[in-house]
Amino acid sequence: MFRTVMTAALALGLLTGCAAGGDQMPADAAGLTQDDVAKMSLHQEFDAYRDHYQHMQRLLRDAQLQVHDGEWEWGGGDRVPLIGGDGVAPLPGSDTSNSYDMRSGRHWSPPKATGRERDLQPMVDYFTDQGWHIEKRTLTGDHEVWGITGDGWQLIYTAQSNGRYSLEVYSEPFWTNDADALSEAVGGRNDADYPERSLPGIYPDFPEWDDPIVSPPKI
User: How many alpha carbons lie under 13 Å from residue 125 in its C-beta half-sphere?
Assistant: First the structure.
């Protein structure tokens, strides 16, 4: 996975919390420190995760509509937290047990597309209009543009030479009190029923805390 190099301003933006004695505490993609999250119950973390998930889907939808308002292919599920401790941006002190990140993506094949760099222009214009930091890369003939929102999210649009174009949204890391417990709370209520294709903004409802456990963890 491409690990983008964040600007100095964004890196400093992660250090917004203050610990006793005036030391800076790193804040996550939601602007929270570990001390903030330590006050949250698992139920509260679950609800916050659902809010992040729905925000991620809105980011994806709005970007999709810049290039194609028809159906997009799904590459798999996107509801369960990803393993933390790594990702598209640094979070000092994070590891696989105290953090997580998120990702969602879709694919489509424009008619007669060949992965031309100029096919990225609608997304470049959109990222520019949003005031996001933009980075471009060319990898083995494929062209991609990154939009870095500055508030915890990064989007990448890729034009591949085989005519398959992808749009992905990544969160920067979030703190959690227990990554396994959160993953089980979300995954246990996840029926793993995802569509093969959908229109922008259409995705299965995210479960509620009061929903039954349909997929208990394997012991």
Answer: 8
**Strand residues in the chain grouped as ranges (E):** 17-18, 24-25, 72-74, 82-83, 99-101, 103-108, 133-139, 142-148, 153-159, 165-171, 174-175, 197-198
- Dist. CA 143–CA 8, nearest whole Å: 25
The pTM for the full model equals 0.88
Query: What residue type is assigned to position 212 of the chain?
Result: P
| Nearest of 103, 94, 102 to residue 37 by alpha carbon | 94
Banded pLDDT at 75 (limits 50, 70, 90): confident
The region of weakest confidence among 3-17, 56-70, 117-131 is 3-17
**Of 103, 104, 94, which is closest to residue 175 (Cα–Cα)?**
94
Distance of CA 210 to the CA centre of its chain: 25
Higher-pLDDT residue of 70 and 76 is 70
Q: Structure tokens of 193?
A: 């029923």
